[in-house]
Amino acid sequence: MLGFINWIASLLIGLLALLLVTFAFTHIASIDPVIRIVGDKASQATYDAKRAELGLDKPLPQQFLVYAGQVLRGDLGTSWSTGQPVASDLVRVFPATFELATVAIIIGGTLGVGLGLLAGLWPGGWRDSLVRVISLLGYSVPIFWLGLLSLLLFYARLHWFGGPGRQDVAFEFTTERRTGMVLIDTWLSGDMGAFRDAISHIALPALVLAFYSLAGISRLTRTAVLEELGKEYVVTARAKGAGQFRIIFRHVLPNIRASVITVVALSYAVLLEGAVFTETVFAWPGIGRYLTISMFAADVPAILGGTLVIGVCFIILNTLTDLIVGGLDPRLKP
């Protein structure tokens, strides 16, 4: 019970800190929202009236309480670019990012853990060297450059994958959007042509993001495996005649699963918030592209709303990870 209370408390503290950061940004930003609305040619009386209407003439603590109340009600303001409520815009674009990041973490997590196991089982060999090179490239290569190169090679030259966007124009309006996630919607529609087209479009950006995420996952898995293989219980198991794979699957993996789950969850959160460049390169209409367009337009409400949603996702994933890891290993409970 105490652990659950601590989990709720950490979640609430994280959300409060996020609200404070986004609220502070509205006052640190050089863009005056009143000028942005009424224009720089408006009279002082018009300026003052709009400032009072927005509540900017009130003390900061009172402004924060009003802001927090609006956020809790789901009111993230109105986008200066689209003229629509920011919450509606985010509901429209977030499923695309969620779908892309989920596919990417499934690929990156599976490959990352597998490569890390290979490197840890045969340290110093060619497998280990290959995994280390892959990890180094994943950390070093700019993701937008990798995205552009992959589009040029695999789409424009080889025609192995679909191009930018989520679907070809021929399929874009033929499927009912039930969940906002194209793979699920096309599958539910029963149109296998549209489903295959959706796979061909999501595969390339998902692989680019997966390559970015598997670098950290494989490196941590390799380190954890090497650390466990050097412990006394492994030496004892080997002395009793246990084989390498038995040691890995019966002893090492159960002991490193908490670390692996943590790094995969954090990588997933990073993909949700860090898909800006990938979505821009692949014209993927998700929250990353929405934020990019909003930043170019100096659309403060949209920027703050998108940042808030991503921050909430990060906090929830982090606290859920702590809860899961604590359930798997009571020693690690908060």
Automatic annotation (TrEMBL):
CDD domains listed in its UniProt record: TM_PBP2
Keyword Phosphoprotein part of the UniProt annotation: no
Main location (coarse class): membrane
Superkingdom field: Bacteria
Membrane topology: Multi-pass membrane protein
Transmembrane segments: 100-122, 134-156, 198-217, 260-282, 302-325
Subcellular location(s) of the protein: Cell membrane
Keywords: Cell membrane, Membrane, Transmembrane, Transmembrane helix, Transport
Span of domain ABC transmembrane type-1: 94-325
Membership in a protein family: Belongs to the binding-protein-dependent transport system permease family.
Name this polypeptide is given: Peptide/nickel transport system permease protein
